[in-house]
Amino acid sequence: MVRVRYAPSPTGEIHIGNARTALFNYLFARHHKGTFILRLDDTDRKRSTDEAIESMVEDITWLGLDWDEGYLKNGPYGPYRQSERMDIYNHYIDILLENGSAYELYYTDSEIENLRNEYEKEKKTFSYRVLKELELESKVRELKEKGYTPAVVFKVVCIA
User: Fold this and answer.
1) What are the two backbone dihedrals, phi and then psi, of residue 55, each rounded to the nearest 5 degrees?
2) pLDDT digit string, tens, across residues 102-115
3) Global pTM?
4) Which residues, other chains included, contact 12 with Cβ-Cβ below 8 Å and sequence gap of 6+?
5) What value does the mean pLDDT of the chain take?
6) What is the domain partition of the chain in residue ranges?
7) What radius of gyration, in Å, describes the C-alpha atoms of the chain?
């Protein structure tokens, strides 16, 4: 059975790209007698708002798109707000960290932005792997003590 989802990030008004994706997925599901799912990708805590969620629901409803499963309708694979699935994600993050497929990176947002700008000025390729190699243990301890939550980065191995 065909299952497709529309997973907007509720950080503002719906735009034409959102509407197009929702419409295509809806039509694909209907054509194949499948399920059209509405999932909210609301993990950007700084920018996701309840007002944007309400607006998005109104907008896709206005477009005539009715979802079969998901936000406000539930279903067998919920919860349908990504922010409510953090326990699931954290479980798998722990597995990735334990088996060495990912690593923690302790830099603040502003530090990452500054480093990206420096790399761009010097025409160097920005790499989280290099940042991990340059990361100081004393800084990691300091940020951990302050309760800073690190980024978790996939460890990618390139085979040439």
Assistant:
1) -60, -45
2) 999 998 888 889 98
3) 0.72
4) 47, 52
5) 91
6) 3-84, 100-154
7) 20
